[in-house]
Amino acid sequence: MKSFKNKVCVITGGGSGIGRALAKQLAEAGAKVAISDVNEKNLKETEVLLDVASDHIHTQVLDVSNRDDFEAYAIRLKDYFGGVDMIVNNAGVALAETVEKTSYEDFEWLMDINFWGVVYGTKAFLPLLKSSPEASLVNISSIFGLAGIPTQGAYNASKFAVRGFTEALRLELKNTSVQPLSVHPGGIKTNIVRNGRMRWSISGGADKSAMERDFDKFTFTTPEQAAEVILTAVKKKKNRVLIGADAHVYDWATRLLPRSYHHLIDTVIRPKLP
Questions:
Q1: For a surface tag, which of 62, 137, 147, 270 has the fewest beta carbons within 10 Å of its beta carbon?
Q2: Is 120 a known active-site residue?
Q3: Which of 126, 124, 161, 170 has its CA nearest to residue 140?
Q4: Which domains does the chain have, with CATH numbers?
Q5: pTM
Q6: How far is residue 258 from each of residues 8, 44, 111, 157, measured CA to CA in Å?
Q7: What is the dihedral sign for C-alpha 92, 95, 99, 105?
């Protein structure tokens, strides 16, 4: 996608973090932006922040884990804009707990949003994307879609699934106008931990403030920087992009030390687990 001007770009999880930053940068580039979020207050804040003409923005409170609502949303945007050129399946949640202690309820909650939300968004919008002469399908995975981490079993499962799903799409869509992109951010300074179901911190225990301190300590990239990397990758029609030095380290470790990178992680984290 050479330019975003007048392109219709759909962003889930647009109420904060990377989603908000993407919406802002796309609006500044002249795109028509459709943003959704489960949090109406945050969504309204993003809308006010963008300050664009009414025919260049559409907002919708949306729970991405609801397939019927997602499919209705796609129809609504087709009627509103006439078509769609890009979707960023960005909405996601966090969960920290050992696999043994993770409840089925928590596991299903996370997978419904992080994985099924990506599936629903992809399938609902793919026909519209294929009708565009130049389209992008952006799915947000994670560095935890590259490497397994203690207390992140459920999150790992969701993000590995997004990665595999997107890689399969890449082959299926190679002779179409749609360019799939798998995004693997490292630590991004967002509220995902503060809003997540964090049952265990890297430092050990279930102290919420400790979890937030751990997250702040290991996050190095702003949402604005992440959004810029993603949009540059879209313009260059990349298949995969890593965001942040930590993402490159994880990628390097899993590629060059596929049998032993777990030992490095284990040395740092395992003694603090129950």
A1: 270
A2: no
A3: 161
A4: 8-272 (3.40.50.720)
A5: 0.90
A6: 40, 44, 26, 18
A7: negative
